[in-house]
Amino acid sequence: SRYRASGRSWILDVGHNPAACKFVTRTLAQSIPEDRRVVVFGALADKDVDSMLPVLRAFTWRIVLVGISGDRGRDVESLENSWYSLFAQTCWRSFATLDDALEGLPSELNSEDQVLVIGSFLLVADSLRHDLFN
Length: 134
Fold this sequence. Notes:
Layout: E1 2-5, E2 8-13, H1 18-29, E3 37-41, H2 49-59, E4 63-66, H3 76-87, E5 93-95, H4 98-104, E6 114-118, H5 121-129
Parallel strand pairs: 2-6, 3-4, 3-6, 4-5
Antiparallel strand pairs: 1-2
């Protein structure tokens, strides 16, 4: 689903496996210039983030990792560790929670940027509950 919030475009997608990430990023790459792409990514503990992160990294270098709380959640430190083990560098930005990202990220974006929120049904549901989208 696409939304206009805080002066920029947001795409919320529940993709939570490597195949879904490939499909979504390949589709969006046809219409979003590379320098306007931003990804906010969080995943549950049982998901294959080591296969999803390279797909997302191929789409943009501006990756924002966020933790998901709860019994099945994966904290941001786990995502940061996976990122570093794959790429030997830190990601563009990371936040402990999606709420923190949605509060802090808009000031770092340009009005032409398009932000893809992907990785979990819970992440999209939490996005839709945030004031940014209401």
